[in-house]
Amino acid sequence: MTLQERMINELEEKEIFRKAQSYAFDYLDKIEEKDVYPSEKNLEQLQVLHEELTNESSNPIDILSILHNIGSLGTVTHTGGRYFGFIIGGAIPISLASKWLADIWDQCGGLYVSSPLNAELELICEGWLKDILNLPSETIAGFVSGASMANFSAITAARYHILKNLGWDINKKGLNGAPKIRIVTHEQIHASIRKNLILLGFGDENIEYVKSDKQGRMITSELPKLDDSCIVFLQAGNANSGSFDDFETVCEIANKANAWVHIDGAFGLWVAASKKLSYLTKGIEKADSWALDAHKTLNVPYDSGIVLCKHPGSIANALQATGDYIIYSAEKRDPMLYTPEMSKRSRAIELWATLKYLGKNGIDEMITTFHENAKKISIELEMAGFLILNDVVFNQVLVALETDQKTKSVLAFLQNSGKIWLGGSMWGGKTVIRISVSSWKTNEDDIQTTIELFKSAKEASV
Ligand SMILES: *Cc1c(COP(=O)(O)O)cnc(C)c1O
After folding, report:
1. How far is ligand 1, taken at its centre, from the CA of residue 236, in Å?
2. 328 pLDDT tier (thresholds 50, 70, 90)
3. Interatomic CA distance for residues 300 and 303, integer angstroms
4. Under 8 Å between Cβ of 189 and 235
């Protein structure tokens, strides 16, 4: 049999797809029994995978068996209820199921002609997102791999826009000799903004840092005088404390000065959908661009982020591409006009499915519940003698003991327990344990297990 004949057989028999499904269901069913983070012993077994690539092809059923029996030992169970590390989020069942279906379709989402379905769903999601977040009607959305690329896209749009207004076409003339763009932000801005500023040639030393307060918010009275050469970066959700900048105050100053305001709202911007928490996003509609993740607090599978921009012409010009073979659609949406990528995954499919499944009330309920769970954890830990170092305004809790050494000892105990996983960070010069509540699956039992583990860890700490 030729290679092609074998592959046709595999498609027709579907044995490998049934096998994959059965392994996947087995994984899902056992997820709460698995170690949240793989044990050393399990990680060692991954070494078996290191081998020379053979000349002969391998049996596809064996490949799935290796992935299931060995590969899955090295997975972290983000989709369970007791993973509190970083801000990763779980995956809502319909988001997985719809992505699974879409994987079979394997749509290239760059152009309308390469996937009309993806283009239509992007348009629908764009409208829904503007509605949920209460953003201006002219806002355009680009569907990217995550908030890093969303920030990247927004910065290129801002750069194009500002230079255009200063009489400089960056697409033609580039950066050499261009008018200076001022970058204004605060000390607590997320690393991905700094990374993107470096990537885009602005340089770390050219950033004008404003001081931030104890919660990690910009001290607005310290804002330097802004002008029409400024891009100001604010944050909806500090990755440690969860705090939100004062958008209203900064946007009003920036708007008067004709400066561009970008809000990095990777995990936090969704609070706009929560009746209880939307006060935190007051004034966001006055910004020029926003970055948002679907794969974090919305619990859509990786990878999925969104850039939103109030200046459609500027983002499309900044991310434009030309080529004789590119077929743009005159009247339809071409997704790649609003993203750095050309070929891309049709991630609007599972995003659409998730938004439709939850509805506005479901998003509100899920996002508000993250906050309520975080609050509950912080109150119980405080009663158990832990220090809580942040105001728990959203889903983040920063926990410490009297000494850094004790905090580190508790963190190591928790990480080695296999029952929960969370990371460490620094806050106000102290070592902290960072709890991020961002999975729909976390329930009361998970919270109690977590509290009990913290108590045991404290008793055992040195
Ligand atoms: C996670 C995060 C990012 C980066 O997003 P990715 O989806 O990992 O690319 C940027 N900003 C903030 C505030 C974040 O929490």
Report:
1. 11
2. confident
3. 8
4. yes
Reference 368, options 282, 280, 290, 453; nearest CA is: 280
For residues 366 and 358, what is the distance between their CA atoms, to the nearest angstrom?
9
pLDDT of amino acid 83: 97
Give the neighbor-by-neighbor strand order of the sheet with 423-427: 387-388, 396-400, 430-436, 423-427
* Nearest ligand 1 atom, CA 149: 9
3-state secondary structure of 268: coil
Q: Where are the beta strands (DSSP E) in 275-383?
A: 289-293, 305-309
Distance in Å, CA 240 to ligand 1 centroid = 12
Q: List pocket residues of ligand 1, CB cut-off 6 Å.
A: 87, 146-148, 190, 192, 235, 237, 239, 264, 266-267, 293, 305
- Cα distance between residue 450 and residue 420, in whole Å: 7
| pLDDT one-digit tens code per residue, 123-161 | 999 999 999 999 999 999 999 999 999 999 999 999 999
Instruction: Provide the pLDDT confidence category of residue 388 given band limits of 50, 70 and 90.
Output: very high
Report the pLDDT value the prediction gives residue 68, as an integer from 0 to 100.
98
pLDDT given at position 327: 76
- Contact between 154 and 204 (Cβ < 8 Å): no
Residue 374: CB atoms within 10 A of its CB come to 24
User: pLDDT tens digit string along 26-52?
Assistant: 999 999 999 999 999 999 999 999 999
